[in-house]
Description:
The chain is an alpha/beta fold. The protein has helices at residues 2-12, 83-89, 109-119, 131-143, 156-170, 179-188, 212-228, 231-241, 245-248, 255-259, 265-283, 296-300, 305-311, and strands at 55-59, 63-70, 74-75, 95-96, 101-103, 173-174, 193-194, 197-199, 288-295, 315-317. The chain has one domain. Helix content is 42%, strand content 12%. Strand 1 (55-59) and strand 2 form a beta hairpin. The termini are far apart.
Amino acid sequence: MLKRLLILTAAIGLAALPAAAQGPPTSPAPGPADDPDATLVEELVVRGRLPGPAWWRVEDADTTVYVLGVPSLAPKRMQWDRSIFERRLQGANVVVLPFVNVRAKLGGSIGTAFNLMRLKSGGPYENRLDAATRARFVAVRTRLGQDARHYGTGNPLAAGVQLAIDYRDRNQLTNMDPAKLVRLLAQQRRVKVQEKSYDLGGQLGGIARTPANVGRLCFDEVLSQAEAGPGVTLAAARAWAEGDVEGALANERTYERCLAAVAGGRTYDERTKADTAAAITSALRQPGHAIVLVQLRPLLAQGGVLDRLRTQGLTVKTPGEE
Length: 322
């Protein structure tokens, strides 16, 4: 549960929700304007011409950084044509994995444990739901093989995140592939691997600061996704493996989207994009070539990683220019 809450904090930066019982949201829900990745740079959304997933390139006079856009959610151990990746891995200066890792320093463990106990109180969560939503939730959690005590929290956001994790686990979905395989292959070739972790353990203390209607919105988003099943995600993963960028971008964006409206969400989003763009510019300083993995929407959104690099005057080429 602690690891899951840290993943939650990574998504929202500083926020979570109070433990009070909530009905359906009463204030306006976050819309596209609240989502930093809602608007894509259309000229960058180009189908790949080479076998396998689509690649973008950032170049200067003596260095090429090959950027592989990866799904934010995909089947575990999904199959994809690695021929282009294997070729580019040969002789690469560095492989940079997506900047999505989180951790908590040991020194913050007492405070983190205290905040965790606060989150784990007031449940089962379904007792706080209206009758219609409770019936939907009970049907979903039963299908996932969980009982009411598994969601032993009064916090709607914590309940939603737990439900999302259970849904993904049951359907063998992950946000770590293909990065895990890429790390292994790079290590086998003795290519330097760069990752970045964000220490967010202490930020669990901000859980009581976010409006409860946002947490309920996130819970409802996840509930709807779990009811619908993994079909959209599986189709998007197949599109990604074939270089169909537009199809890959059709993946479900449930609590990822609504959490962008939570206090601190924009700050975290800005930090990860800036750090990723900086990693690419750093790789350009060494002659040769490098490989960088970035999740697709942060890569291709207005104000996203490639958009920032173009603003800096760097040359960005699309998968259609291979």
